């Protein structure tokens, strides 16, 4: 049989060609549907991963903020390398979580959010550590100035040495104050000098208000003290001087009360001796009685002489009450 080669047409198959065409179309449509379904599934997955990325980043931000807050209160930021270590942990954790995203949209959302998060916490941790370092430096400065002020107040004439020592500490490039800007350190140094000078003058006033006033009047600390501080210190010196005068008067009055009390005790003792005839002139002369005046040595000598004269002229019955009356007469100034 002769072989004929040509293209087959649907008519060669009578009605079967139409069915084949429909089958082909169905297969083609089925493939398109599968492609569409896969595409829709991938889009849904991508949208879900974008959402997941936002949720994970939100959780991560909350965790990182919590860690920073704990570091602020726990003292972890005292370590100079804290920010570097903190950022290393953040980078590691972000990379680990980022590996679970499979779609391009999910990875892009995570990478963008991750980069923004790292940038944010790099700045936040650095600023917070600088802030905490500043707070610590200020606290240490206050303690330093307080202890230095107490030292110079206790020994005000050691002012120059303490002031130089304080300046050396503030300007030490290896010290805690080295983190403070140079202009701020200059301000601290000046404020420290002023505080130490004020403490030195206060120390002098406490020792001797008059000497404190003299030091201020001669202007010894004028280069350290502003007008308001000097005026305040001069007022403090004047109050101290007035206080000294008041105390001196109080002590004088107390001494006078004590002296009178002792004199009255001696007078009572002498009355008893008069009654027992045991009072002698040496007793009177060696006593604490005043030389003259009411209840004085002169009075008791006169009373003793009068008593001896009466005893020599006419013996009488001894009555202790008589001598008490005599003492009261001496105190009242009736007997001279």
Which secondary structure elements does this structure contain, and how are they paired or packed?
Elements: H1 16-74, H2 82-98, H3 104-154, H4 159-170, H5 182-207, H6 209-217, H7 227-275, H8 281-285, H9 297-313, H10 320-332
Detailed description of the structure:
- This protein is an all-alpha fold.
- The protein is built from 10 helices and no strands.
- The protein has helices at about 15-75, 80-100, 105-155, 160-170, 180-205, 210-215, 225-275, 280-285, 295-315, 320-330.
- It starts with 15 loop residues before the first helix and ends with a helix.
- The mean pLDDT is about 80.
Distance between the termini: 188 Å
Which stretches are low in confidence, meaning pLDDT under 50 for 5 or more residues running?
none
Task: Give average pLDDT, whole number.
Answer: 80
Give a short account of the largest sheet: none
Shape category: rod-shaped
Number of strands: 0
Please write the string of helix (H) and strand (E) elements. HHHHHHHHHH
Keywords:
0% strand, rod-shaped, mainly alpha, 336 residues
Quick structural summary:
The model has no long low-confidence stretch (mean pLDDT 80). With 336 residues, the protein is an all-alpha fold. Helices cover 77% and strands 0% of the residues.
């Amino acid at each position: 049989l002769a072989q004929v080669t040509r293209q087959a047409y649907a008519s060669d198959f009578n009605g079967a060609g139409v069915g084949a065409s429909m089958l082909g179309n169905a297969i083609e449509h089925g493939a398109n549907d599968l492609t569409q379904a896969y595409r829709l599934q991938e889009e849904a997955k991508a949208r879900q991963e974008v959402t997941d990325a936002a949720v994970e980043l939100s959780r991560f931000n909350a965790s990182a903020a919590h860690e920073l807050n704990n570091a602020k209160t726990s003292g972890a930021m005292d370590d100079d390398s804290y920010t570097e270590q903190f950022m290393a942990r953040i980078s590691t954790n972000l990379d680990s979580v980022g590996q679970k995203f499979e779609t391009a949209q999910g990875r892009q959302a995570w990478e963008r959010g991750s980069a923004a998060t790292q940038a944010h916490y790099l700045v936040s941790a650095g600023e917070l550590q600088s802030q905490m370092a500043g707070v610590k430096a200020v606290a240490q400065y206050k303690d330093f100035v307080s202890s230095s002020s107490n030292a110079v107040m206790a020994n005000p004439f050691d002012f120059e040495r303490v002031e130089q020592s304080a300046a050396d500490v503030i300007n030490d490039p290896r010290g805690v104050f080295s983190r403070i800007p140079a202009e701020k350190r200059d301000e601290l140094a000046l404020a420290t000098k002023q505080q130490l000078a004020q403490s030195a003058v206060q120390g002098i006033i406490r020792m001797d208000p008059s000497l404190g006033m003299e030091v201020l009047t001669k202007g010894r600390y004028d280069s350290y003290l502003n007008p308001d501080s000097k005026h305040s210190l001069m007022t403090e010196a004047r109050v101290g001087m007035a206080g000294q005068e008041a105390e001196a008067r109080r002590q004088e009055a107390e001494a006078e009360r004590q002296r009178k009390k002792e004199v009255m005790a001696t007078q009572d003792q002498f009355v008893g001796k008069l009654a027992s005839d045991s009072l002698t002139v040496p007793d009177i002369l060696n006593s604490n009685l005043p030389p003259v005046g009411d209840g004085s040595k002169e009075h008791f000598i006169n009373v003793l002489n009068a008593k001896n004269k009466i005893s020599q002229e006419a013996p009488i019955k001894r009555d202790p009450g008589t001598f008490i009356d005599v003492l009261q007469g001496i105190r009242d100034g009736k007997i001279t």
